Automatic annotation (TrEMBL), chain A:
<dbReference type="Pfam" id="PF00246">
    <property type="entry name" value="Peptidase_M14"/>
</dbReference>
<feature type="domain" description="Peptidase M14">
    <location>
        <begin position="121"/>
        <end position="414"/>
    </location>
</feature>
<keyword id="KW-0482">Metalloprotease</keyword>
<dbReference type="InterPro" id="IPR000834">
    <property type="entry name" value="Peptidase_M14"/>
</dbReference>
<keyword id="KW-0378">Hydrolase</keyword>
<dbReference type="InterPro" id="IPR034248">
    <property type="entry name" value="CPA_M14_CPD"/>
</dbReference>
<dbReference type="GO" id="GO:0004181">
    <property type="term" value="F:metallocarboxypeptidase activity"/>
</dbReference>
<dbReference type="Pfam" id="PF02244">
    <property type="entry name" value="Propep_M14"/>
</dbReference>
<keyword id="KW-0479">Metal-binding</keyword>
UniProtKB/TrEMBL annotation, chain B:
<feature type="domain" description="Cystatin LXN-type">
    <location>
        <begin position="74"/>
        <end position="177"/>
    </location>
</feature>
<dbReference type="InterPro" id="IPR009684">
    <property type="entry name" value="Latexin"/>
</dbReference>
<keyword id="KW-0646">Protease inhibitor</keyword>
<dbReference type="InterPro" id="IPR049897">
    <property type="entry name" value="CYSTATIN_LXN"/>
</dbReference>
<feature type="domain" description="Cystatin LXN-type">
    <location>
        <begin position="1"/>
        <end position="54"/>
    </location>
</feature>
<comment type="similarity">
    <text>Belongs to the protease inhibitor I47 (latexin) family.</text>
</comment>
<dbReference type="GO" id="GO:0008191">
    <property type="term" value="F:metalloendopeptidase inhibitor activity"/>
</dbReference>
<dbReference type="GO" id="GO:0005615">
    <property type="term" value="C:extracellular space"/>
</dbReference>
<protein>
    <submittedName>
        <fullName>LXN protein</fullName>
    </submittedName>
</protein>
């Protein structure tokens, strides 16, 4: 009987049904054998559907009866007219079931946010995707998760949307993990996304930003590559798409954009780390972002986060001619880098991609800039080569912490300079 | 630019001791990249002003520890995926870094920027003389091409005689890598 009740309760709870509304549990104490017999008879009356949680055995020992709401009056009259003493143990079984369900859900939520996601270590895709759901659960009116496409190996491409409302507000796009070996970037991304959610309503800058703008944040931009860095080759950079006619796998997702595509700042050899791919946006991971930003139509800034070198870069990578907004972008980069250095003394260089790092064709930020997104920046996070891609996890939080003011500088500037 | 010879750079830099942040040494250097044959390492001449922290004690501790090992030291993936280096492997990593500096110098052009990305594998080779010998397979990261290049190097070291790379060669890369 009890098992059936539990099963029914689970099914009902799952279907959100209220199977036990108004039912009560009565504790009944028979005082002699005759009353025991009467209680047994009560149980045999099918139409009453009395459910014994504890059967009547000997006089003096209580029996517990769950009585469905519609049978309550009849059962109580029966007990009273036979002078069988009883008390109401549970006033409303459904209330208890609802209470318990709520407690279970709450404890799962508490467990997920306080068994606490460890921001100071590197995580797998599964852990990151689970954490995303936790973030949404913990900040349901601010954060939602959208899927913008699928990777080559059919992994979902998730983007966190931070919005306080409005309709297609001007937006800021952030991405981390486009090059899978740059583990510090999704790690910083997670910390930063969490920080945005926590600081809304606390920090005046992020609050002002989110009150008029939306933020879209793709944490694992190259999930296939990222999975490969966990399973097979920690230093894998590219996507994992198969290249026709070659034994070599993968396209450099930061050479696959339609801006100076195919030039000398990329490679036409599929075995190369900077292979640009067969044609622009051939990679589904890139196409998804292109489609998203294009159809959104109101993205005002693209910030793409890489490692390593400690640099803050802006267009162009595919040509040496300065971008039309070079001066403004340069001034903003200078300020951001200065505020970053103020945290722990970490020194960044800054400038256009081609001047500061190397010629690079078909990059994310060049495409964004050429498609109307004025405030397009690339970060190269810590370090400068001592650990390179294998940055110790002890540096995750310091890196994210120092990068935060630089990101804020850019986002505030975007807010204050609408176009 | 020097006609028919190559391009010379004059540098003024500050060297910082990785193990002692306050330890800095001023350095001036001249680097000449040769025209034509890119297989010749650039010429480097430098002078330093100041002294770095003395490491004799730590050197000797490491030297004696390795000399007294029963079995040859073997290790891989330093640092590991999470950037961790077990404390006892730190000197092995520093030695690789110094030796990799030589390999990088020998293979640099004006269009390359190499860093030591990881020690894939290291094996001690027991010697009958006073030197320590290690056979390393390292991964070099070249910044401009973004390539990861496996490289083998045989390294000799002695506390008083310093580091020597007696043999080195790039290794072929597996297509899956």
């Amino acid at each position: 009987m009890k098992i059936l009740l539990v099963f029914a309760a689970l099914v009902a709870a799952a279907c959100n049904e209220k199977l036990f509304a108004g039912d009560q549990v009565l504790r009944v104490t028979a005082s002699d054998e005759e009353q025991i017999a009467q209680l047994r008879m009560l149980g045999e009356q099918e139409e009453l559907q009395v459910d014994f949680w504890r059967h009547p055995t000997i006089p003096g020992r209580p029996a517990d009866l769950r009585v469905p709401f519609r049978s309550l009056q009849a059962v109580k009259i029966f007990l009273e007219s036979n002078s069988i003493s009883y008390s109401i143990m549970i006033e409303d079984v459904q209330e208890l079931v609802d209470e318990e369900k709520k407690t279970m859900m709450m404890s799962r939520r508490i467990e997920r946010s306080t068994s606490t996601f460890d921001f100071a270590s590197y995580h797998t895709i599964e852990e990151i995707y689970n954490w995303m759901d936790t973030l949404v659960d913990n900040h349901p009116s601010l954060v939602s998760k959208i899927q913008i496409g699928e990777s080559y190996e059919n992994r979902p491409l998730y983007v966190l949307k931070f919005s306080t409302g409005g309709s297609n507000r001007p937006a800021i796009w952030l991405d981390t993990g486009i090059h899978s070996r740059e583990w510090i970037t999704p790690a910083t991304g997670i910390w930063t996304a969490n920080k945005i959610a926590e600081e809304y309503g606390q920090d005046p800058s992020i609050t002002a930003i989110l009150d008029s703008m939306d933020i879209f944040f793709e944490i694992v931009t190259n999930p296939d590559g990222f999975a490969f860095t966990h399973s097979s080759n920690r230093l894998w950079r590219k996507t994992r798409s198969i290249n026709a006619g070659s034994r070599c796998v993968g396209v450099d997702p930061n050479r696959n954009w339609d801006a100076g595509f195919g030039g000398p700042g990329s490679s036409s050899n599929p075995c190369s780390e900077t292979y640009h791919g067969p044609y622009p946006h051939s990679e589904s991971e890139v196409k998804a972002i292109v489609d998203f930003i294009s159809s959104h139509g109101n993205v005002k800034s693209v910030i793409s986060i890489h490692s390593y070198s400690q640099m803050l870069l802006f267009p162009y990578g595919y040509k040496t001619a300065p971008a039309p907004h070079h001066q403004e972008l340069n001034e903003l980069a200078k300020k951001a880098v200065s505020d970053l250095a103020a945290v722990y003394g970490t020194k960044y260089t800054y400038g256009s991609i081609v001047d500061t790092i190397y010629r690079a064709d078909g990059t994310t930020v060049d495409w964004a800039y050429d498609n109307g997104v004025k405030y397009s920046f690339t970060f190269e996070l810590r370090d400068t080569g001592r650990y390179g891609f294998l940055l110790p996890s002890t540096q995750i939080i310091p890196t994210a912490t120092e990068t935060w003011p630089a990101l804020l500088d850019i986002m505030v500037h975007v807010l204050e300079h609408p176009y | 630019d020097i006609d028919d010879v190559g391009r010379k750079y004059h540098l003024e830099l500050v060297l910082e001791d990785v193990l002692d942040k306050d330890g800095t040494v001023n350095c001036t250097a001249e680097v000449l990249y040769h025209l034509g044959n890119k297989n010749i390492a650039p010429d480097v001449h430098f002078t330093t002003e100041g002294e770095l922290k003395n490491t004799d004690e730590a050197d000797n501790v490491f030297y004696n520890r390795i000399k007294s090992l029963e079995k040859e030291l073997v290790a891989e993936n330093i640092p590991d995926s999470h950037g961790n280096v077990p404390p006892e492997m730190e000197p092995i990593r520093l030695l690789a870094w110094a030796a990799a500096g030589y390999v990088i110098w020998q293979n640099s052009t004006e269009n390359t920027k190499f860093q030591l990305a990881q020690i894939k594998h290291v094996k001690q080779v027991k010697r009958s003389d006073e030197y320590l010998e290690f056979d390393y397979t390292i991964l070099l990261h070249e910044m401009v091409s973004q390539e990861i290049i496996p490289w083998q190097m045989t390294v000799l070291w002695h506390p008083q005689h310093g580091v020597q790379v007696t043999q080195d060669s790039p290794q072929p890369k597996h297509p899956s890598e």
